[in-house]
TrEMBL record:
<feature type="binding site" description="in other chain">
    <location>
        <position position="154"/>
    </location>
    <ligand>
        <name>ADP</name>
    </ligand>
</feature>
<comment type="function">
    <text>Catalyzes the phosphorylation of D-fructose 6-phosphate to fructose 1,6-bisphosphate by ATP, the first committing step of glycolysis.</text>
</comment>
<feature type="binding site">
    <location>
        <position position="11"/>
    </location>
    <ligand>
        <name>ATP</name>
    </ligand>
</feature>
<protein>
    <recommendedName>
        <fullName>ATP-dependent 6-phosphofructokinase</fullName>
        <ecNumber>2.7.1.11</ecNumber>
    </recommendedName>
</protein>
<dbReference type="GO" id="GO:0061621">
    <property type="term" value="P:canonical glycolysis"/>
</dbReference>
<feature type="binding site" description="in other chain">
    <location>
        <begin position="125"/>
        <end position="127"/>
    </location>
    <ligand>
        <name>substrate</name>
    </ligand>
</feature>
<dbReference type="GO" id="GO:0042802">
    <property type="term" value="F:identical protein binding"/>
</dbReference>
<dbReference type="GO" id="GO:0048029">
    <property type="term" value="F:monosaccharide binding"/>
</dbReference>
<feature type="binding site" description="in other chain">
    <location>
        <begin position="169"/>
        <end position="171"/>
    </location>
    <ligand>
        <name>substrate</name>
    </ligand>
</feature>
<feature type="domain" description="Phosphofructokinase">
    <location>
        <begin position="4"/>
        <end position="274"/>
    </location>
</feature>
<feature type="binding site" description="in other chain">
    <location>
        <begin position="213"/>
        <end position="215"/>
    </location>
    <ligand>
        <name>ADP</name>
    </ligand>
</feature>
<feature type="binding site">
    <location>
        <begin position="72"/>
        <end position="73"/>
    </location>
    <ligand>
        <name>ATP</name>
    </ligand>
</feature>
<keyword id="KW-0808">Transferase</keyword>
<feature type="binding site">
    <location>
        <begin position="21"/>
        <end position="25"/>
    </location>
    <ligand>
        <name>ADP</name>
    </ligand>
</feature>
<comment type="subunit">
    <text>Homotetramer.</text>
</comment>
<feature type="active site" description="Proton acceptor">
    <location>
        <position position="127"/>
    </location>
</feature>
<dbReference type="InterPro" id="IPR035966">
    <property type="entry name" value="PKF_sf"/>
</dbReference>
Amino acid sequence: VKSIAVLTSGGDSQGMNAAVRAVVRSALYNGLEVYGVQRGYQGLLNDDLRQMDLRSVGDIIQRGGTILQTARCKEFMTAEGQEKGAEVLRGRGIDGLVVIGGDGSYQGANKLSKLGIKTMVLPGTIDNDIPFTDYTIGFDTAVGIVVDAINKIRDTMSSHERSSVVEVMGRHCGDIALYAGLASGAETILVPEVPFNLTEVSQRMEANFAKGKRHSIVVVAEGAGNGHDVSSEITRGCGLEPRVTVLGHIQRGGTPTAVDRILASRLGDYAVHQLMAGDSGKACGIVRGEFLSTDIDTVVNTKKPFNLDLYELALRLSQ
Ligand code: F6P
C-alpha cells in the first residue's frame, strides 16, 4: 500500500484521538500518504477526506472525542453504499483503510475488504464488548469515570445511611459495571451475563444494613436493566428507597487515561504495519500483552467471554 485513510465510526471513545495520531504518524514515518475521513462512513460517502501531515494530529493525544468526528451511517449498511465507499477510495488512489470503532464499524470495514480495499479495524468503544482483545480503547477511562462517580455517591450515601443504584453504559456487555463495581467496592453488580433476582438483592441489602453497613451501592449495566426500575423493585422488596444516578454520556468524554493512550498508540502503529505487510480484513487486538490480528468475520461472530471469576471475586469482597 502507498496511500491509506483513517476514520472513526460509531459511538466515540476516549483514546480514539490517540489512535488516529498513531495511524497518521506511523504511516508518515513509513513513507505512506495518509488521509483523514471526516464523520465516519458518512464522510466517506460524501468524499469528505483531507490529507494529513504530522501537524494535523498535534495536541490531540490527551483529548477525548475524535477530531475526525463520527456518525452512525445507514446508507453504508447497504451493498450500494459499500460499493460507493470503495469507489471513493479507489478514485483517490487510496488502497488501505484503518477503521476505529465498535462492532457495527467492523462489519462495514469487512465489506470494504471484500471489495478489494485493504482494511484493518481497531477496537474503539468504552463497552469492552469486542472479543480477541483484552481491552478496547476507552474502556479504562470509562471505568475510571464510573469509579470516581461512585466514590462521590458513596460519601453522601454513608452520611445518610442510604442506598444507591448507579446505571452505567455498556450496551449488551456488563464489563463497565463489573470492573467499576469491583474497583469501587459496590455490594451489588447487575450485568446481562449473569441472571439475578431483585427480591434476593433487596433482602441482601436489608441484611447488610442490619449488619452495620452504612451504605449500599448497586451498579446496574444498562444491558441488565434500567436504574429507575431496579430501584422501584428494591423498594417493593424491602422498603429501602435507593437514589438513582444514570451516568450516561459522561462516561464517554474527558481525557483518556495513560492506559488507553498506550493501547491506542500501539494498536494504531500495528494496524499500519499489518497493512504494509499486505494483510486485510483483520481486527487488531492485544491479548496478554501480545498483538493479535483476527479475521473480522470471526470477531463479529464471536461473543466476548464474560469474566465470571472477577464477578464472583467482587461479590466475595463486598460482603
Ligand atoms: O457503544 C458505546 C455506547 O456509549 C453504549 O455504551 C451506549 O449504549 C450507546 O453507545 C449510546 O449510544 P448513543 O450515543 O447513540 O446514545
